[in-house]
Amino acid sequence: MTTMPRGIAADVHSAVRRRRAVAVAGAVSAGLLVLSACDKPTPRATVTVGKSSISSEAECYKDGDNLGQQEAAKCALKKSSDTIKVAQSETLRIGVDPEVADTGWALWINGQQVTNVYKKTYYSFQGVDLFADQQGQAAPKQLYISIVEQNKTASGPSSEFKGVWNFKLENSDA
User: Please, what's the b/e burial string for 138-152 (b: 16 or more CB within 10 A of its CB; e: otherwise)?
Assistant: First the structure.
């Protein structure tokens, strides 16, 4: 036989249930508020040299929308604190998320595009001497590279620029 609370005991029991329901509703509301304040993470790009690797979210990114060439060029000139040491003639490896590879990407150095557009998630620049002496000038101690998400067209320059990831390379031989 089941007993049911009667009188004052029933009122106390239902008050406890109401408080629990209000607490649960409050916790759910607070959780949704916290989640709605979070930004969606951008795709990542990774630079690897030897056994060292650094990874970063985009410096400039509009959820896959076109930034435009001028904005991408401005972003590519921003100095990055994500740093990796590179010896001369060392292999430079770059990896990007699949959604970046679907659009295409190019390597920029000090704000200038230096490669064609790749549509791969990984590319290895073997034996590239990024710090080569320039016509009577000493090899630079550092340079800034950017991975720029941009489309590959059949003919002519890219028309869409969707994201920029910046990294600082330090010449370990300087």
Answer: eebeebbbbbbbbbe
